[in-house]
Amino acid sequence: MINTNLKNSITIHHIVFTIMDLSETEIFYTKIFGQPLYSNESTSVYQVAADCRAALAMPWL
């Protein structure tokens, strides 16, 4: 069991999703979160909450 004080202090700063088709995934997430904060040929980063970002990344091969 996690201590209540510890459980209440845990937050999520960022989440990374490994994806296979960046352009199709960008279309989907842009409809939800708006334009990405950062985007290049293999990664897009979205602001999903005041202090949380979601990164979409192609797998490293």
Fold and architecture overview:
The protein has 61 residues and is an alpha+beta fold. The protein has a single domain, classed as Signal recognition particle alu RNA binding heterodimer, srp9/1 (2-Layer Sandwich), CATH 3.30.720. The chain has two helices and four strands, in the order H-E-H-E-E-E. The longest helix is centred in the middle third of the chain and has 12 residues. The protein starts with a helix and ends with a strand. The model has no long low-confidence stretch (mean pLDDT 88).
Brief overview:
This protein has 61 residues and is of the alpha+beta class. Helix content is 30%, strand content 33%.
Q: Topology of this structure?
A:
Layout: H1 4-9, E1 14-18, H2 22-33, E2 38-39, E3 43-49, E4 52-57
Parallel strand pairs: 1-4
Antiparallel strand pairs: 2-3, 3-4
Features:
single chain; 61 residues; alpha+beta; Signal recognition particle alu RNA binding heterodimer, srp9/1; Glyas_Bleomycin-R_OHBP_Dase; Glyoxalase/Bleomycin resistance protein/Dioxygenase superfamily protein
Beta content: 25-35%
Backbone CA Rg: 14 Å
CATH architecture: 2-Layer Sandwich
The quaternary structure here is: single chain
Low-confidence stretches: none
Domain count: 1
User: Ends: how far apart?
Assistant: 38 Å
Structural class: alpha+beta
Integer average pLDDT: 88
Protein name: Glyoxalase/Bleomycin resistance protein/Dioxygenase superfamily protein
